[in-house]
Amino acid sequence: MFGLVLIFVIPAVLANPLAPRIECPKFTPVEDFDIPQYLGRWYDIEHSKWNFGGEELLCTSPKYGLINATTVSVENFSLLDSALGLFPVKATGTASVTDIPGSLLVDFPYGDSPSPLTPDGYGNYNVLKTDYVTYSCIYDCQPTEDQVYDGVIAWVVSRTPQLADAARQECEDVFFSLGVDMSNFIHTYQGPDCTYPED
Ligand SMILES: *[C@@H]1O[C@H](CO)[C@@H](O)[C@H](O)[C@H]1NC(C)=O
Ligand SMILES: *[C@@H]1O[C@H](CO)[C@@H](O)[C@H](O)[C@H]1NC(C)=O
């Protein structure tokens, strides 16, 4: 009987992802996260819609480089699809390790104050699952009382511009278990019109 009740309670929580999120679900980033293996270029496959991740950004490809043992450089390259054509844009920042393995704090120094850790000590770039050579599943959950934004951003990135469905599913299964609203996912264009910076 209690089993049945639980089955009905959990979907009710998951079904309302846009409720203000004053708590984040428990999640565990990759515990033996290995930064050197993670460096290099990735291609954005899909992600939640957010302020710096709209539909007008095509061919998005973040690149990570080692600065020192605790800091990684971040270069996000995209083509901005505008009425006047495609324009290259780049966001440059850093990612620093936190006390939690697999949880990094990415910061783009564009005016506002540096991104804080969550009250539980998590950064905004949590690698939930990766095999380093094919795919990576990234998750950010910030407690918020915002009525519209639920505080969650999730990304799937790939080592190649296209990612096999099975690998994408690995990420979506993890996201689903955390109640991520994937209905607003933007599937980043990585087609033949893309150009990428030379590595
Ligand atoms: C690593 O580099 C960052 C950014 O340049 C710097 O703030 C930090 O102090 C450096 N840490 C170490 C251990 O050298
Ligand atoms: C850069 O790309 C990464 C991975 O797609 C994402 O985590 C990050 O939020 C992006 N930031 C910006 C400012 O584009």
Automatic annotation (TrEMBL):
One of its GO terms (cellular component) is cytoplasm. Keywords: Disulfide bond, Signal. The keyword Cytoplasm does not apply. Residues 34-189 form the Lipocalin/cytosolic fatty-acid binding domain. GO terms for molecular function: pigment binding. Residues 1-15 form the signal peptide. Pfam families: Lipocalin_2. It comes from the Eukaryota. GO terms for biological process: lipid metabolic process; response to reactive oxygen species. Belongs to the calycin superfamily. Lipocalin family. PANTHER family: APOLIPOPROTEIN D, LIPOCALIN_CYTOSOLIC FATTY-ACID BINDING DOMAIN-CONTAINING PROTEIN. This is Lipocalin/cytosolic fatty-acid binding domain-containing protein.
